[in-house]
Amino acid sequence: MMRRGIVGTLLLSLFLALSSSTSSADGSGPQPAYILRHFTSETIVNPDGTSTSTSHTEVEAANDTAAHRLGERSVSFSESMEDLEILEAVTRKRDGQELPVNPSAIFIQAPQGSSNAPMFSDRKNKIIVFPNVGAGDVVSYTVRTHAKVPYTPGHFSWTRTVSPLWYVEDWQETIIFPKSMPAAVESHQIAHSMEERGDQIAHIFTYRQTSPRARGPRAAFSLRLCTAIFHLDLREPCRIGPSLCAAFSGQGRGYATCRRAR
Description:
By secondary structure, the protein is mainly β. It has 3 helices and 18 strands. It is about 15% helix and about 45% strand.
């Protein structure tokens, strides 16, 4: 099973909103309704496949309609497999004033329609309601999650898709593996670099897109980082890189062992 991770789920819900745009008054073309000013994420992976991720997001609403939608954020997680904590959440007004989110405005909800789908009953949404969000304001929040149960023991996988529709000023994601846990990486139009940090290897991914296209494939950019990876792009069939076959079979054996244990 391929693990997307809580940060992936967070970005998916966020970027569905970021895809919106409005037409400019001078007819120069669509203008983004949302601007991702800043996103950072660091994930530390343990040898058993568990991990801890901390992400920080800052999104600006370009107009009142966007501000209304941005005032409530939803983060999905698995109650049995993940621990989720909102470390900080504020509305930053245009004049620099910061309005902290009241703790009572952060709560857990079952996803809509989950009562009709028992197999997904473990999924929950943590809702953040930001105060007094207006045009030009920024919602800023920091999320930490601990993946306490790996989908496949001893293995870890991560997926990310970035659409050309999104307006992204600053995006960086770092995933840190033990040197004893070899990782295969496939990156498409997202900058990738590596750093040695003692007995760990850090994979750093950066992205910037300040001229989003009004139309285009939603999965134009993607990366996969895991002990066993595949590349999926909506413009072409799913493919497995030849150099990754050994790692992929290794994850298959781990998953089979996990299923037998259950």
